[in-house]
Structures are given as C-alpha cells and as structure tokens.
Known about the structure:
Layout: E1 3-4, E2 7-8, E3 13-14, E4 17-18, E5 21-24, E6 27-31, E7 41-42, E8 46-48, E9 64-72, E10 80-84, E11 89-93, E12 99-103, E13 106-109, E14 119-125, E15 130-133, E16 136-139, E17 152-154, E18 167-176, E19 179-189, E20 192-197, E21 203-204, E22 213-214
Antiparallel strand pairs: 1-2, 3-4, 5-6, 7-19, 8-18, 8-22, 9-14, 9-18, 10-11, 10-17, 11-12, 12-13, 14-15, 15-16, 18-19, 19-20, 20-21
Amino acid sequence: MINIAGNDIIDIAVGGTTIEKVYIGSQLVWEKSSPALPYDAEISYIESSGTQYIDPDVLSGDATDITMTMHILAADSSKRLVGSSNTSFEYYLSSSSKLSVRSNNAAANSSKTPGTGGRHTYRISNAANKYYYDSTSYNFTHNGTSYQGASLYLLMRPSASSTGISARLYSCTIKEGDTLLRDFIAVRKDGVGYLYDRVSGELFGNAGTGSFTLGPDVT
C-alpha cells in the first residue's frame, strides 16, 4: 500500500484508466486490492429439508430462463424446483412425481421421473418453450400473459409450504432473454448457508424456516 501524507492510496487512474499495479524499476510497490467478498467460503451446495427456500427477487417474464444444478433427495409429488407467487410459472414434480411445468397456468407433464439418483441439471425456458432434464428436452406452450410479473422462488412455492423440495442446490442462473439477472453459487457466512449472486454481489439467505445444511467447502 502506498501512503502519502498519512493517507493510504486505494485507486490510481491515469487519463480515466484505472491502474492495477505500480512498479519502481522491477519492484512492485503498489497493487489495487480486490474488494472483500461478503462470505467466508464457497461451498459445494446448500441442502434444503423441504422447509427452506430462496427468494431471488426476480419476476417472471416472456423470456425467463432458469437453470439449476441440484440433487433431489426426496422425489415426492407436488414439490417445486421453481415456484411462483401466482402458481402460473413453475417447474415441479407432478402428483405422480414426474417432471412437469406450468406456464400461464397450462401444465405440461413429462414421462421422466427423476428419482434421487444424484446431481443433475434442470432448466425451464419460456423463450424456447422447453424444459430440460440434463440434455433431454420437453416441450410446453405458454399462450397468454398471466405468468408475467409473478415473483419467482427456488425450492418451494411459499404460499403452500408443503411444496418445499428436499434437495441439494449447487448453483442457479436466471436470465431474461440474453440478460443474466442472477448467477448463484452456494456459500457460507458465520456458519449459515446462502446463495451468493455474482451479478449483484449480494447474499440471498433462507426465506423459509429452519436452516440450510451446508455442503463441504470448495477447495
């Protein structure tokens, strides 16, 4: 750190360009410090027992695209991977525990029962009219507009707590068209699990009851 007249230098700019490092000869005398991250460590996943969920503060739109990497621990019926405030945009397990979606209150059911067989990628795309289990896609239709502007939730539809899914959530991205709104990774701070959004730089904690079980630290 360079100190001038008792003041530490945090930033140096020349002609509007920020300088990252300052050398005298071959000796590095100053380097711009990276801002401190708001968590203690990145972890492999946060695990919900079915009563924890995340409110990502995002509304559904015509081109909403959500991708989640997760391990379903209990493939019970009517559990939500993605829930919404008015039930009109959701990715869930049907009454027969098959992967299903609802967009504009029109349900589409696949023949796939995901079970509890490890980590997989789950995606729902309004723009593509498709939902995915890893690389396998299924079609749906979202005629109408009632799904637009609904508050979205991860791991539950909070208006019905029985919809909470028991699962390990590793990561999640939320896009509206080509715009990345959320880029979540699992982290811990003071022994509590969160999703950290690499877009906003904010932590998103449990909006339900109880607490997330923490996966091991990423090394």
